[in-house]
């Protein structure tokens, strides 16, 4: 039933479904044998709770800054370009530090790494909120690096310990990400006002959830996850055009997402909203992503490929962005909802493409590393460009050109990545590791 590894002809939906089913059966059989030798999860409910709490902490460090960015800039004397750099650094670190995750996991174990990185995340949050301009930038780097490492490790833990529920668990993981982002975007300004009208305390508050997640994750460090594993090598991915199309789509849609995280509240404040109102609009837009992030992959796999779905959701996201930037404020919430629906779908489709364009789990892991490493590095240029253009023009109206160019690039890359093809590489078994 499995196709020739060198056959790069388009696969029909029925053939792809059969192939994926066969791969899942083999993977589940391997997982059952592994679990018989080494009990992976003695208390699955505790692992599930730990995963949710960890995922909740992977976006607040990014989305909590946006509603306070104007106040922080005035307090510390930041230019718009420096503010743009502040929104760019964490996203850049997502890409630059992602390759470090598997190295650390092989050396110390994924569970220990997650625990340690949660502590560095808490430290980064404290550093950026308490030590002036230097601490602001250094803490942002540390927080972004921490999120980049954990973000690579969690999906692997989900696949390993919840193999039969991997799809549902990935949905829970994605929802927790969106919920954490929405909570931070909507509550950071009210928190800072309650805590003595101090932006530093409002930002520093998000250290507490990170430490709480570390406490609930601590029992996982004592679990035994050792198992007989085969090492695989995937070569040629960087020379594959389809792999680059997937990567570019991931990076460009992420660029728009992090522009929203970093700059949307400032844009809305510039249009007349209060910081609290602007934070609530961002929070509401992110909450809506819960709906489309779950629905879009299912709908997109009903057809022969994902090209039409990618075009539709990117147009929705661009429409919402342009509406928030130019349309009358009376209809702002409608545009924010449209933006959230579009961006939730674009992100979940980017993750779905990694799976659909890969022949097996090993290729998917390598394609995921490539798409996140290069993609997030590319994505970091968007928020920085917004800061530079705002500094040059002194306003927000020129940002429409940035939105349009990034969105057009994402559509072009997405149409290529959405074709029913596989990347032209295969995984090769190297040796056995004990």
TrEMBL record:
<dbReference type="GO" id="GO:0022857">
    <property type="term" value="F:transmembrane transporter activity"/>
</dbReference>
<keyword id="KW-0812">Transmembrane</keyword>
<feature type="transmembrane region" description="Helical">
    <location>
        <begin position="45"/>
        <end position="62"/>
    </location>
</feature>
<dbReference type="InterPro" id="IPR052524">
    <property type="entry name" value="MFS_Cyanate_Porter"/>
</dbReference>
<dbReference type="GO" id="GO:0016020">
    <property type="term" value="C:membrane"/>
</dbReference>
<feature type="transmembrane region" description="Helical">
    <location>
        <begin position="335"/>
        <end position="356"/>
    </location>
</feature>
<feature type="transmembrane region" description="Helical">
    <location>
        <begin position="82"/>
        <end position="101"/>
    </location>
</feature>
<feature type="transmembrane region" description="Helical">
    <location>
        <begin position="137"/>
        <end position="158"/>
    </location>
</feature>
<dbReference type="InterPro" id="IPR036259">
    <property type="entry name" value="MFS_trans_sf"/>
</dbReference>
<feature type="transmembrane region" description="Helical">
    <location>
        <begin position="398"/>
        <end position="422"/>
    </location>
</feature>
<feature type="transmembrane region" description="Helical">
    <location>
        <begin position="308"/>
        <end position="329"/>
    </location>
</feature>
<feature type="transmembrane region" description="Helical">
    <location>
        <begin position="170"/>
        <end position="191"/>
    </location>
</feature>
<feature type="transmembrane region" description="Helical">
    <location>
        <begin position="203"/>
        <end position="221"/>
    </location>
</feature>
<protein>
    <submittedName>
        <fullName>CynX/NimT family MFS transporter</fullName>
    </submittedName>
</protein>
<keyword id="KW-1133">Transmembrane helix</keyword>
<feature type="transmembrane region" description="Helical">
    <location>
        <begin position="276"/>
        <end position="296"/>
    </location>
</feature>
<feature type="transmembrane region" description="Helical">
    <location>
        <begin position="242"/>
        <end position="264"/>
    </location>
</feature>
<feature type="transmembrane region" description="Helical">
    <location>
        <begin position="113"/>
        <end position="131"/>
    </location>
</feature>
<keyword id="KW-0472">Membrane</keyword>
<dbReference type="Pfam" id="PF07690">
    <property type="entry name" value="MFS_1"/>
</dbReference>
<dbReference type="InterPro" id="IPR004747">
    <property type="entry name" value="CynX-like"/>
</dbReference>
<dbReference type="InterPro" id="IPR011701">
    <property type="entry name" value="MFS"/>
</dbReference>
<feature type="transmembrane region" description="Helical">
    <location>
        <begin position="363"/>
        <end position="386"/>
    </location>
</feature>
């Amino acid at each position: 039933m499995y196709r020739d590894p060198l056959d790069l002809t388009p696969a029909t939906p029925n053939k792809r479904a059969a192939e994926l089913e066969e791969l899942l059966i083999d993977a589940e059989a391997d997982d059952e044998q592994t679990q018989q030798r080494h009990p992976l999860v003695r208390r699955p409910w505790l692992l599930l709770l730990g995963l949710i709490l960890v995922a909740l902490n992977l976006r607040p460090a990014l989305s909590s800054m946006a509603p306070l960015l104007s106040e922080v800039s005035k307090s510390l004397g930041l230019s718009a370009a420096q503010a743009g750099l502040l929104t760019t650094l964490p996203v850049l670190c997502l890409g630059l530090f992602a390759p470090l995750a598997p190295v650390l996991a092989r050396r110390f174990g994924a569970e220990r790494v997650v625990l340690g990185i949660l502590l560095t995340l808490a430290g980064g949050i404290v550093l950026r909120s308490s030590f002036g301009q230097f601490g602001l930038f250094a803490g942002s780097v540390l927080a972004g690096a921490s999120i980049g490492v954990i973000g690579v490790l969690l999906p692997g833990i989900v696949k390993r310990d919840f193999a039969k529920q991997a799809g549902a668990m990935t949905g829970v993981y994605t929802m927790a990400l969106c919920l954490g982002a929405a909570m931070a975007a909507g509550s950071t300004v009210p928190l800072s006002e309650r805590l003595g009208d101090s932006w530093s305390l409002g930002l520093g508050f998000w250290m507490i959830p990170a430490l709480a997640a570390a406490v609930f994750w601590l029992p996982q460090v004592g679990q035994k996850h050792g198992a007989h594993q085969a090492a695989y090598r995937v070569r040629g991915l960087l020379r594959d055009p389809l792999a680059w199309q997937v990567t570019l789509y991931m990076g460009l849609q992420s660029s728009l997402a992090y522009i929203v995280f970093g700059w949307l509240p400032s844009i809305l404040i510039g249009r007349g909203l209060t910081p609290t109102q602007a934070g609530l609009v961002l929070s509401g837009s992110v909450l809506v992503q819960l709906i489309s992030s779950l629905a879009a992959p299912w709908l997109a796999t009903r057809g022969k490929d994902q090209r039409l779905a990618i075009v539709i959701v990117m147009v929705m996201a661009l429409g919402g962005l342009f509406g928030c930037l130019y349309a009358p404020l009376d209809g702002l919430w409608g545009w924010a909802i449209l933006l959230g629906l579009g961006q939730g779908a674009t992100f979940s489709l980017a993750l779905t493409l990694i799976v659909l364009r890969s022949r097996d789990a090993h290729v998917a892991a390598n394609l995921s590393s490539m798409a996140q490493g290069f993609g997030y590095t590319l994505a970091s240029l968007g928020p920085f460009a917004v800061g530079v253009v705002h500094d040059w023009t002194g306003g927000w109206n020129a940002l429409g050109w940035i939105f349009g160019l990034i969105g057009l690039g994402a559509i072009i890359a997405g149409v290529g990545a959405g074709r029913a093809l596989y990347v032209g590489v295969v995984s090769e078994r190297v040796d056995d590791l004990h």
